[in-house]
Every structure is written in C-alpha cells, then in structure tokens.
Write a structure and sequence with these properties.
alpha+beta, Aminopeptidase, 30% helix, [Ribosomal protein bS18]-alanine N-acetyltransferase
Amino acid sequence: MVRLDRFRWWHIEEVLPIEADLFGVEQWSPAMFWNELANGHHYRIATDDDGTVLGYAGLTVVPPDEAWVQNIAVRRDAQRRGIGRLLLEELLAEAARRGARRTLLEVAADNAPAQRLYAAYGFEPVGIRRGYYQPSNTDALVMQRDEE
C-alpha cells in the first residue's frame, strides 16, 4: 500500500538517489529541496508499508489563483503502479483547496509518458521553453490545466 505524507527535510537525502537516477546532471540539489520546503511550498512523499520512499511531488501556489507543479518523480522500480497519478491528484487537490484557477507545469519535450499522464488530467500544451533543461539543452513543454 502506498502512503502519502508531508515531505520533510529528513526526506531530502532519501530522494537524492531518485533525482540522480531519473534526471542525471539536471537533478535538483539538496539546496533546491531545502529552499522549496523553507518557502512553505506543498510537497508530498510517497512511501510503501516499510517507509521506503517511492516518489515525491511538489506544488507552488502563486496568489491569487495560479499553481505550478514543481516536480513529480517516482522511483524506476515503482513506476507504472499509479504512484505518479496519486501524487498528481494530491497536488491538484491542494491547488483547488488554495483557490488556483489555473495549474501549470513544465515537462521535458521528449518525456512522452509524463505528457500522456498530464493530458489525462486535462493539461494542454500552451508553449515551449527552448533549451530549458540544462546542460542537455532539452526543450520544456509548458502545459496548463484550467479549473472549471
């Protein structure tokens, strides 16, 4: 069974290997996670029954009515089990609780599985940020979902 909890500072060391595996040279540093947590952004951690970290996700709400999905990551050996969906649903619920009328995210232009997940939740492409991910120079597709 997967459990979602508040992402706390002590989880940072546990998520770094997932970051390194999934994002390589473009991984977030410990300082980036510390900054997100220190600024009070909404972060959740997904764990299994024995407390092993399976994934994590974060959301930034920009008043008065905008939210940004900062990241969603699921350990490779835990992918395709609905954990990414569970994390995304939690972020979207928090965005709604905080009055966001629009939720945006950036996803690597070559990450088709993630784009399909976001599209299934009503996200649509609204722009491209050329060379956004560095040092690979990969473009980011900006996707947006409007609340009804």
